[in-house]
């Protein structure tokens, strides 16, 4: 195919070359700091933390908390991890201070704890520290990836969601994407995409989108059965996941095995329905996916035509955006080509 002109839509620094829909809303919302409850009690520790959050001088408290992370008392560890999590969440400048004070390695150790709450606090604190770009290399070189992947598999629902967000943040450094994939994250993210809460599904989709810019992770995702949950989410218009799932699918269908999986999981009727009734952006990306699926397969073209795709494609070729018209016209030309007797 000929090179396509640049477009305006970007996400996490990546240019979405298949889209040009001018829509101010992003298909993805970034995984930001944790959304857990704060200050559950009116304890002296909570009051101390409130004062520290408002203060310009939190270094002394941070040093003490890092020491407490390595305490023999699990309750002291929990309290320290919770306070570090909240300090990093509420004051961005604390993230670098906490990392420089030596918190990263003891927090990573907590991620492997058998205590669910301690593991959750450790994961969430690492997530909040990872929001600072300067901390990502330290977190990764300190061995955080594999414990985060284990937490993604074994943790509480909140732990899994925050582990997915932390892996997303680390994956924003290009050279870490392959390492995250090799550590086994992809199947667990696919499982979260299929079985998680709405927030979990969104976090998993965002992380998978980032990781699947690497070919070997695309292969892992397809092998892990990602197409089934993607097709199911795209078929559910009230889930608010159509765009996210479609962007991930669009990233994957560059692989022949991914195109086969789309068809095997019943994706063609869903994609044609999106072309008929989806939003402007959804229609454009659905046409792009169908075009990739059909380019090298006469059989798939026949399936698309039988699903009634031609009338809505004709309508799009006349009234869609410039790039939607181009994609619709290219797809119509494919569908109208003579088919073999088979």
TrEMBL record:
<dbReference type="Pfam" id="PF25598">
    <property type="entry name" value="ARM_PUB"/>
</dbReference>
<dbReference type="InterPro" id="IPR016024">
    <property type="entry name" value="ARM-type_fold"/>
</dbReference>
<dbReference type="GO" id="GO:0061630">
    <property type="term" value="F:ubiquitin protein ligase activity"/>
</dbReference>
<keyword id="KW-0808">Transferase</keyword>
<comment type="function">
    <text>Functions as an E3 ubiquitin ligase.</text>
</comment>
<dbReference type="InterPro" id="IPR011989">
    <property type="entry name" value="ARM-like"/>
</dbReference>
<keyword id="KW-0677">Repeat</keyword>
<keyword id="KW-0833">Ubl conjugation pathway</keyword>
<feature type="domain" description="U-box">
    <location>
        <begin position="63"/>
        <end position="336"/>
    </location>
</feature>
<dbReference type="InterPro" id="IPR058678">
    <property type="entry name" value="ARM_PUB"/>
</dbReference>
<dbReference type="InterPro" id="IPR000225">
    <property type="entry name" value="Armadillo"/>
</dbReference>
<dbReference type="GO" id="GO:0016567">
    <property type="term" value="P:protein ubiquitination"/>
</dbReference>
<protein>
    <recommendedName>
        <fullName>RING-type E3 ubiquitin transferase</fullName>
        <ecNumber>2.3.2.27</ecNumber>
    </recommendedName>
</protein>
<comment type="pathway">
    <text>Protein modification; protein ubiquitination.</text>
</comment>
<feature type="repeat" description="ARM">
    <location>
        <begin position="102"/>
        <end position="144"/>
    </location>
</feature>
């Amino acid at each position: 195919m000929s090179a396509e002109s640049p477009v305006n839509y970007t996400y996490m620094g990546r240019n979405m070359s298949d889209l040009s829909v001018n829509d101010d809303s992003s298909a993805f919302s970034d995984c930001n700091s944790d959304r857990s409850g704060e200050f559950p009690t009116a304890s002296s520790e909570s009051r101390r933390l409130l004062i520290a959050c408002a203060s310009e001088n939190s270094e002394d408290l941070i040093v003490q908390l890092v020491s407490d992370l390595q305490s023999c008392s699990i309750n002291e560890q929990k309290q320290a991890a919770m306070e570090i999590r909240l300090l990093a969440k509420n004051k961005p400048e604390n993230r670098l201070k906490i990392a420089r004070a030596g918190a990263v390695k003891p927090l990573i150790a907590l991620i492997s704890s058998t205590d669910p709450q301690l593991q959750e606090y450790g994961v969430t604190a690492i997530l909040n520290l990872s929001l600072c770009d300067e901390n990502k290399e330290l977190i990764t070189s300190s061995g955080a990836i594999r414990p985060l992947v284990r937490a993604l598999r074994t943790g509480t629902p909140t732990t899994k969601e925050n582990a997915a967000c932390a892996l997303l943040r680390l994956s924003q450094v290009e050279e870490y994407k392959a390492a995250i994939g090799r550590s086994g994250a992809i199947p667990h993210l696919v499982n979260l995409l299929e079985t998680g809460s709405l927030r979990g599904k969104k976090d998993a989709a965002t992380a998978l989108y980032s990781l699947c810019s690497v070919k070997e992770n695309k292969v892992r995702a397809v092998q892990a059965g990602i197409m089934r949950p993607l097709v199911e989410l795209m078929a559910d218009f009230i889930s608010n996941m159509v765009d996210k799932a479609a962007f991930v699918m669009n990233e994957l269908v560059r692989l022949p095995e991914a195109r086969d999986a789309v068809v095997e999981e019943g994706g063609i009727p869903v994609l044609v329905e999106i072309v008929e009734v989806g939003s402007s952006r959804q229609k454009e990306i659905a046409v792009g996916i169908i075009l990739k699926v059909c380019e090298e397969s006469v059989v798939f073209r026949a399936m698309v035509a039988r699903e009634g795709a031609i009338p809505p494609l004709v309508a799009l070729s006349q009234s869609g955006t410039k790039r939607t018209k181009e994609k619709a016209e290219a797809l119509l030309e494919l569908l109208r080509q003579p088919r073999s007797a088979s």
